Amino acid sequence: MSSAVELWQRYQDWLYYHVDLGIYVDISRIGFTPDFITQIQPKFVKAFADMKALESGAIANPDEHRMVGHYWLRSPELAPTEELRRDITETIDRIEDFTQKVHAGDIHPPTADRFTDILSIGIGGSALGPQFVAQCFAKADVPLKISFLDNSDPDGIDLVLDLLGDRLSTTLVLVISKSGGTPEAANAMKEVEFAFKKAGLDFAKQAIAITGVGSALEKYAIGNNWLDQFPMYDWIGGRTSELSAVGLLPAALQGINIRDMLRGANLMDAATRNEDMRQNPAALLAMAWYFAGNGKGEKDMVVLPYKDRLLLFSRYLQQLVMESLGKEKDLDGNTVYQGIAVYGNKGSTDQHAYVQQLREGVPNFFATFIEVLQDSAKTHPEVEEGVVTGDYLLGFLQGTRSALYDNGRDSITVTIPVVSELTVGALIALYERAVSFYASLVNINAYHQPGVEAGKKAGAKVLALQKKLVDTLRSSTVSLSLQEIAVKIDALDEIESLYHIARHLHANCKILFEGDLSKPMTLKLMLIPQ
Ligand SMILES: O=P(O)(O)OC[C@H]1O[C@H](O)[C@H](O)[C@@H](O)[C@@H]1O
């Protein structure tokens, strides 16, 4: 353990500061040594070269044979073709034009002068960024209030629709899906379309699609004369799409300054092109992650923003980091099982939940504190002489950082001056680039997600099995056991799945059970006519 004087010196030696953004990155509480820096230097030479190639339009996602262009969204001049440059700038202009017309009431729902609400339908990268940004800039008097449907959960859908109530007639529905075929988003859309019909409303006149060119959703939107649509490009991944139409349209509609978000990202991008690792905040983060987890993700990343508005940052980063870095194979086909687990909510709230374990339990993590210097735009009363609530918040952050470090738990601290469009855009860009660098350091493709497909395919198989089970019961005049059904449909090795499906149908009043609920093989099943 270093002395306080040595630590203070280490802090100053490694402190990064972005002059225009007022953002600091402190990696002094990660225990790397000068030797480690020397060792990792060549890996960064490769990482910087990879990044140059990626930004100039190389096929950086080889498995899907795609370019990776999210950095062009805020520096269109870097895009490799004139067509791409035009696409990016025209889309931003169209978003602003559309937003201005919605706010002015020039575009309005059929039965009212103004839209009052946005209902954003999408999942994963088509939801996490918009949700994070909405929470960052939430306020009482937004031009349009946003709600989200990001699941295939009927009860969750009921709640959101109930809360909208009569305002459904003045709700602008954004259906966001790059592929245009993700079942959760498609289901939620169908449910909302149904709710519109039930309320006697014309869904198409209030619906916008944000989707990939040529997708099923695009065809559906065009075929049904939806209000409008905005493009998603195949060279942007869902998890890096916040600064594309996916994030910018909902943000602009909520009155968030999207030009400032883009400018913040642009400034951070410029800083993270610096090939002097010590002067590059994303390289510093990637280096610190590499050291902390031994280049193998041996330690989890606990993200603790001490600011309520940044609550969803850890959830946003969970997808960005884990879907990008969590890979079985490296780029040479070796089995590597890479990844960094990310979790966290916010401080000081989490101090009263799991920080006990962080401080004293399994030392399998490093923390990332996000500090916001400005307490609030308003002045606040003193809660003690000379002390306001914001002073407490800083005290808690500093206290936890020291308490963890004193017990051998490392941390990074990212400090932003204020939660603004500029700094939020910059934070997104900072972590996007850190993920890109880390992927180069460990030689993996950060831009595909082959593992997600397995779950999707298995899910589709369950639905196919459900159809067979229901058909079998429908064509039977007597009740049947699981064994009998499995034999009939030649699915003996799926009997456990059949049981889970039957139990769900039973709980939803579609199947009758006779027998002992604690002994699945005693059950006799019969379909309840609907
Ligand atoms: O935008 P979509 O095509 O609907 O995709 C939504 C999400 O679903 C997939 O399963 C991917 O793993 C995510 O990366 C993606 O963001």
TrEMBL record:
Pfam family, one: PGI
Protein name: Glucose-6-phosphate isomerase
CDD domains: SIS_PGI_1, SIS_PGI_2
EC code: 5.3.1.9
Catalytic EC class: isomerase
Pathway(s): Carbohydrate biosynthesis; gluconeogenesis; Carbohydrate degradation; glycolysis; D-glyceraldehyde 3-phosphate and glycerone phosphate from D-glucose: step 2/4
Compartment annotation: Cytoplasm
Active-site residue list: E323 (proton donor), H352, K456
InterPro entries: G6P_Isomerase (IPR001672), Phosphoglucose_isomerase_CS (IPR018189), SIS_dom_sf (IPR046348), SIS_PGI_1 (IPR035476), SIS_PGI_2 (IPR035482)
Single biological process term from Gene Ontology: glycolytic process
